[in-house]
Design a protein that fits this description.
alpha/beta, Rossmann fold, 6-stranded parallel beta sheet, 15 strands, 2 domains
């Protein structure tokens, strides 16, 4: 009987319960590494616990936490997502120091800054100069332009977000032909009312867009919009005063409302409107986004997943992490409904796989 060899490439993953979108780029990045190292060579391993809900990330990992990745017999450790943040050293310095001693190579794949502040950039630069990775692949050109001149000996690639590999990484369920729906996924910012016809009421913030060759209005309550932009805590306060009863359908589409934050599970918020769901696993969400006729969301990776399967999406957040859409030619995703050129995506996927194979 053949015995499979242990994987030698550990892809860091996790924090799915507090943001299921993390799973989307975890899965896409895992697929990418399999294309380079082979399917039996790659495995998942958990993210650091200091980056979790209701914890001060700058306090570092818990004192009694066992950083078990140090004991793995691996050749590569792969970090993904907005790991270029102000608490990167608190999360990873002890680990990187130990892995460096044992010759483990660090790959930063689909990486990005978190807020792009000058203090964050300076902190990350100091950390990477102390612990140079083996390779760096960014997920947005803004990040790439900042760090392309750092540590010249480290190869760097202006790549796409790993979530854009989802259409290759996962085979989702199809829906029945008579099930036509759109997705409205809002965590922090208020879900917009959708209407056709005349401009909506003056008390709303209204935006006109084109969908199915007709003009539609997307309007958000001003008070909830104000509190959401003020802070995350304020956004939940504003949500308590949102007394709207939102519709089941728009035109001929059912409206499905997934919630990306399973933990903490705020049942009163998640299931207040019709056709809602929340889960701590990603495959249900991927099936939903892959069949969506339209996704409106304030979650970056809800839009990434939708676009990766060739469906239209629009983003409602000022987050600097939305810079990843500019890399695939969709920098105006916050102004209008957009779709991804699937031939372009396929070329970008192949180019990234080829570059990684040539440089590992």
């Amino acid at each position: 009987m053949d015995v499979k060899k242990s994987p030698r490439v550990a892809v860091v993953s996790g924090q799915w319960g507090q943001n299921i979108g993390n799973a989307f780029f975890n899965l896409g990045g895992f697929y990418l590494m399999e294309q380079v190292f082979g399917p039996d060579s790659v495995g998942f391993f958990q993210d650091q616990p200091n980056y979790r809900t209701l914890h001060n990330k700058f306090e570092g990992n818990p004192e009694n936490y066992i950083d078990f990745v140090r004991y793995l017999d691996i050749e590569y450790l792969v970090l993904q997502g907005p790991v270029l943040n102000s608490w990167m050293n608190k999360s990873w310095e002890k680990t990187f120091k130990e892995l460096k001693k044992s010759g483990v190579k660090i790959i930063l794949n689909s990486c990005a800054f978190f807020k792009f502040t000058s203090s964050e950039i300076s902190s990350v630069k100091n950390f990477l100069e102390e612990y140079p990775p083996h390779l760096i692949l960014t997920r947005d050109s803004r990040t790439y332009e900042i760090l392309k001149g750092w540590i010249p000996e480290v190869p760097k690639y202006d790549g796409i977000d790993a979530g854009f590999f989802l259409n290759r990484a996962v085979k989702p369920f199809s829906t029945k032909s008579d099930c036509q729906y759109m997705v409205s996924n809002f965590d922090r910012y208020p879900e917009p009312n959708i209407s056709v016809g005349d401009r909506p009421k003056a008390r709303m913030n209204a935006l006109e867009v084109i969908f199915k060759n007709q003009k539609i209005w997307l309007e958000t309550p001003k008070f909830q919009n104000f509190t959401a932009h003020k802070s995350k805590i304020w956004s939940y306060l504003g949500d308590l005063f949102d007394r709207r009863r939102l519709p089941n359908e728009f035109i001929d589409l059912k409206i499905i409302r997934p919630e990306h934050r399973y933990y903490p599970h705020m049942t009163h918020k998640i299931y207040r409107q019709p056709n809602s769901l929340s889960s701590d696993e990603p495959w249900t969400y991927i099936s939903i986004y892959s069949n969506s006729n339209l996704t409106l969301s304030d979650r970056v990776h809800a839009c990434v997943a939708t676009l990766a399967f060739g469906n239209p999406a629009m983003l409602f957040t000022p987050s600097p992490r939305s810079a990843l859409f500019g890399r695939v030619g969709l920098g105006d995703i916050s102004k209008k409904i957009v779709e991804l050129d699937m031939s372009f995506l396929s070329d970008e996927q192949e180019n990234q796989i080829s570059w990684l194979k040539d440089n590992v």
